[in-house]
Design goal:
Layout lengths: L14 H16 L9 E6 L2 E10 L2 E12 L2 E5 L8 H12 L3 E5 L5 H4 L2 H6 L4 E4 H10 L6 E3 L4 E4 L2 E6 L11 E4 L4 E5 L18 H14 L5 E4 L8 H13 L1
Parallel strand pairs: 4-5, 5-6, 6-7, 11-12
Antiparallel strand pairs: 1-2, 2-3, 3-4, 8-9, 9-10, 10-11
Helix pairs in contact: 6-7
Length: 253
């Protein structure tokens, strides 16, 4: 159809413009300006869902995993989207899928791949939580902050879902916590845990490499038999990620 249509002013085929656009698209891709994928949501088990958002790092889309859990009283959000363009679409997608609103949000450390959406969700009336240490680091770094913070490991109950936060020690950051759902044996490790796809520890600018090994041993001892482990980036749900992270830390040291 485009090949048969002509511009009345120049008498040149419009397909020239179309071809130019296609070439520009390929050029952008070849030179690293790949299109950032949209928010994806993947069922994990029962009422648990892993959602993945992306950021452009060095011209390539980089995935960040987070999680939400559907209870009979609303949805629990563990970490926020990385990119602000996904803050509202996530809420919209959750409501469309489950006809429920997010009623609680917890961020597991102060980096923006965990906490970027805290201010946005706080302004939309969603109770937001972090540890006290995460709050202090967020203030120090000028990052988004939660409305509430807890000083020690805390148990939360939202409708028929019960979970606990646990601080095993410094690792990826000084403040990284994990979230554990005992009944379902789901461990959300966030960026403290490295995917089995990772060959290194990734960004370590705020890490405590010396403490990380002991932190992992403490975490493995605390939750020795999880059914699912969710790391902060790349492939998720393999319990092997715990031992894999420990191996990477030992190699780094």
């Amino acid at each position: 159809m485009i090949l048969q249509k002509h511009n009345t002013n120049t008498q040149q085929p419009v397909y020239v413009t179309a071809v130019f656009a296609i070439l520009l698209l390929f050029s952008n891709t070849l030179f690293g300006q790949a299109e950032i994928p949209k928010l994806t949501i993947t069922p994990l088990t029962d009422d648990f869902y892993v959602y993945t958002t992306y950021k452009d790092l060095d011209g390539k889309p980089f995935p960040s995993n987070s999680m939400y859990v559907v209870s009979d009283k609303g949805v629990i959000l563990i970490d926020t989207p990385w990119d602000e363009s996904d803050f509202q679409p996530l809420l919209d997608s959750i409501y469309k899928r489950h006809q429920k609103k997010v009623v609680l949000c917890i961020a597991t450390h102060f980096h923006d791949d965990s906490s970027a959406g805290l201010d946005y969700y706080k302004k939309h009336g969603i109770p937001t939580y972090t540890s006290k240490l995460t709050h202090e680091l967020s203030v120090q770094e000028g990052n988004a902050k939660a409305a509430y913070h807890f000083e020690k490991d805390t148990v939360f109950t939202v409708g028929n879902k019960k979970f606990e936060t646990f601080y095993p020690g410094a690792g990826h950051t000084q403040d990284n916590i994990v979230v554990w759902f005992e009944k379902e044996k789901v461990l959300y490790g966030g960026c403290l845990i490295k995917s089995t796809e990772n060959n290194d520890l990734g960004y370590t600018g705020d890490a405590d490499i010396d403490a990380w090994e002991g932190t992992m041993k403490k975490l493995i001892n605390k939750y020795p038999k999880p059914s699912y482990v969710i790391p902060g980036h790349f492939a998720w749900d393999s319990p092997k990620a715990l031992q894999h992270t420990l191996k990477l830390v030992k190699k780094k040291r």
